[in-house]
């Protein structure tokens, strides 16, 4: 666990043990800063409600890139259900997806020449400024063997959840956010109870994205239901249709 705040670290230690006993999980380590070495990578990296605490978009993306370099397989970003938090989350999502298709020109040329894969067609594609980075990456990838890893700004990523696609989020065009309800046990230092509290718990929304360090392969992907429960009945009160809103692949 990495947190600059000593108070938050002590709080985390307290809730992870019973009384004055040892920690429930003995393999948990606490740090104030990320390790400087990128040699150690983790199967699962989680960043919970940290993006909106960082003042600038540039600093947020620097942190996301640093976390991604330390990720072996999955990176989970979690934040509140507020629109600003969702927007910051989508910035991080799109940044990792796009960085995974931005080729380093000189390194790519050297790699292809080393494997005797450079052709006039590939050379023209690499220097064509009329196509996007993604198009360039996709075309070059189809013309090199699978065992050749193209040098990109960051390791390639795909969305594991909740999005069934790697395209732009349509929610941003409507100034709305993709949120999920959650119920949690309330812990208050002052011992007071909130008016929203029911049986010691509250309900709220959060937003998240899970990125996997790999390329998305062509495959069938099911649409994800965003909202449902709207029935259409006829004059005899018989259900004729059931409308749902989905995020299509």
From TrEMBL:
Q: Which Pfam families match?
A: Rsm22
UniProt KW Iron-sulfur keyword = yes
Keywords, A to Z, come to: Iron, Iron-sulfur, Metal-binding, Mitochondrion, Transit peptide
Q: Name one GO cellular component term.
A: mitochondrial small ribosomal subunit
Its predominant location is mitochondrion
Q: Would you say which domain of life the source belongs to?
A: Eukaryota
Keyword Metal-binding annotated? yes
Q: Which GO terms describe its molecular function?
A: iron-sulfur cluster binding; metal ion binding; methyltransferase activity; structural constituent of ribosome
- Secretion signal span: none
- What Gene Ontology terms for biological process does this UniProt record contain? translation
Q: Where does it live in the cell?
A: Mitochondrion
What does the protein in this record do?
A: Mitochondrial ribosome (mitoribosome) assembly factor. Binds at the interface of the head and body domains of the mitochondrial small ribosomal subunit (mt-SSU), occluding the mRNA channel and preventing compaction of the head domain towards the body. Probable inactive methyltransferase: retains the characteristic folding and ability to bind S-adenosyl-L-methionine, but it probably lost its methyltransferase activity.
Name of the featured protein: Uncharacterized protein
Tell me what organism the protein belongs to: Dictyocaulus viviparus (Bovine lungworm)
């Amino acid at each position: 666990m990495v947190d600059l705040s000593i108070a938050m670290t002590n709080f985390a230690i307290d809730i992870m043990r019973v009384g004055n006993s040892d920690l429930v999980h003995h393999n948990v380590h606490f740090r104030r800063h990320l390790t400087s070495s990128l040699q150690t990578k983790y199967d699962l990296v989680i960043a919970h409600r940290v993006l909106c605490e960082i003042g600038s978009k540039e600093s947020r993306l620097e942190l996301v890139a640093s976390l991604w370099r330390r990720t072996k397989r999955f990176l989970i970003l979690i934040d509140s259900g507020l629109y600003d938090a969702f927007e910051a989350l989508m910035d991080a999502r799109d940044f990792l997806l796009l960085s995974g298709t931005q080729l380093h020109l000189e390194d790519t040329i050297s790699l292809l020449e080393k494997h005797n894969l450079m052709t006039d067609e590939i050379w023209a594609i690499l220097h064509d400024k009329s196509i996007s980075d993604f198009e360039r990456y996709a075309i070059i990838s189809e013309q090199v063997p699978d065992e050749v890893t193209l040098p990109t700004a960051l390791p390639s990523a795909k969305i594991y959840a909740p999005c069934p696609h790697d395209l732009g989020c349509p929610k941003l065009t409507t100034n709305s956010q993709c949120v999920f309800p959650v119920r949690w046990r309330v812990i208050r230092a002052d011992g007071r109870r909130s008016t929203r509290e029911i049986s010691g718990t509250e309900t709220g929304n959060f937003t998240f994205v899970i990125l996997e360090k790999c390329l998305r392969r062509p495959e069938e992907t099911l649409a994800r239901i965003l909202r449902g429960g709207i029935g259409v009945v006829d004059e005899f009160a018989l259900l004729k249709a059931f409308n749902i809103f989905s995020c299509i692949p």
